[in-house]
Amino acid sequence: MRKWQIKSSRTKRIGVLLFERFSNHCLANAVEPLRAVNSLLGWQAYDWSYLSVDGAPVTSSSGLPVSVQASLGRASGGDVLMLLPSYGYRSYATPDMLRALRQAAVRFQAVAGLDMGSWLMAAAGLLEGRRATIHWDEIEDFHEAFPEVQVQRERLVMDGNRWSCGGAMTSFELAQRMIAIDHGEALRTEVAALFMQGDDGSWDEGLPRNPSNTVAVALAVMRDNQEYPLTMPQIAQQLGLKPRRMTALFQSELGTGPLQAYRRIRLQAARRLVQKTGLGVAEIALRSGYENASAMTRAYRQEFRETPQQTRRRDYNKDDF
């Protein structure tokens, strides 16, 4: 059951284990959504450190050098260990590295294989009897090399505390899933919108829309109509649905109704105006679809547990995350 909002004040600690010639695209897609969460929430919900097997700097496949904070053996542990090997991944499966990986898996609550990371997890015995995926270019070899793993041709697989995904775009999806689990679908959709992912309102007219696409289109319609909000029947009509069916899809996909999602979108827009502009609260209220500043401030305080004025003061004084 997906939840719309989850209240949390706990910082999640993540180790990102990089190997030579790792995909920088994959790395950015994994950590940038977490950075966005810190910025949106105004506190450090995620704290990550870069690791390498021996503690030496590593260089991405595109030539970007990355300094690391520690070697894998000296990493103190945390909530999630992300493995990011890309090119030449088989050469990294040495006895010493696999031993260090098994030891690290004890110190981290979950281990996630990004790109070709599942191969190293399987070689270390961390996926025995587990469901897992890998970059689809290598999925047949993966299945043959590790028959004890339940290999699935999926973009993302989360089997208990063993997670896996394929290439660069699926790393973003993994980060999004983490955000939803830790903080709820409301924050996940806000981060997705920041990266213009998944809700541009377009679809192939020649193909039937699946429920996820329908909800994404509905969210895009809501974002396009914030100053003068539409009614739920009007949105449902644009989607070619009955209001009751639209509500059921929202509850299934996001764990909340369309009215609550619409309210959150408008308040997110209000918060961005508070943070990024010098507009007064009355003007921000009008631009967010509220008739007056008092109504918007009440809704804002209920949603974000602070007033617009408090947000503006906090953002003015805080360091960037």
UniProtKB/TrEMBL annotation:
Keyword Magnesium: no
Domain of life per record: Bacteria
Keywords: Transcription, Transcription regulation
InterPro entries assigned to the protein according to its UniProt record, in alphabetical order: Class_I_gatase-like, DJ-1/PfpI, Homeodomain-like_sf, HTH_AraC, INH-QAR
Domain called HTH araC/xylS-type: residue spans: 216-314
Pfam families cross-referenced by the UniProt entry: DJ-1_PfpI, HTH_18
GO MF annotations, alphabetized: DNA-binding transcription factor activity; sequence-specific DNA binding
Name this protein carries in UniProt: GlxA family transcriptional regulator
Origin species: Profundibacter amoris
